[in-house]
Specification:
With about 100 residues, this protein is an alpha+beta fold. It contains four helices and four strands, in the order βαβαβαβα. About 40% of the residues lie in helices and about 20% in strands.
Length: about 100
């Protein structure tokens, strides 16, 4: 059985775009089985330096995956606004089960 795919949403408290992206992800959570990790970039100086004002950023993988690949090779799926089409394609390509809810 394949592992459930994971996405990580990097954001910060009191960020309306971050909240908007979380809300925009809800239809995908109804359609696909995946794990969503949420990380506050302000809690880690390295993340704050890496993402700055770019948040929210939706990255494929877990926070641990992204720490292991801190290079520029770890490309975001989207930032500021959810790219639903790209995220759906990524989820399907990485084995996210369709939930049909």
């Amino acid at each position: 059985m394949a592992a459930t795919p994971a996405l990580t949403l990097y954001g910060r408290a009191y960020c309306h775009l971050c909240e908007d992206m979380k809300v925009a992800l809800e239809p995908l959570r109804r359609d696909f089985s995946f794990i969503l990790h949420e990380v506050d970039v302000d809690a880690d100086a390295a993340l704050e330096a890496r993402f700055g004002e770019l948040v929210p950023v939706l990255m494929p993988g877990t926070p641990a995956d992204l720490r292991a690949d801190s290079s520029a090779h770890a490309a975001p799926l989207c930032h500021y606004f959810l790219d639903e089409a790209a995220t759906r394609v990524w989820l399907a390509a990485h084995g996210a089960a369709r939930t049909g809810r």
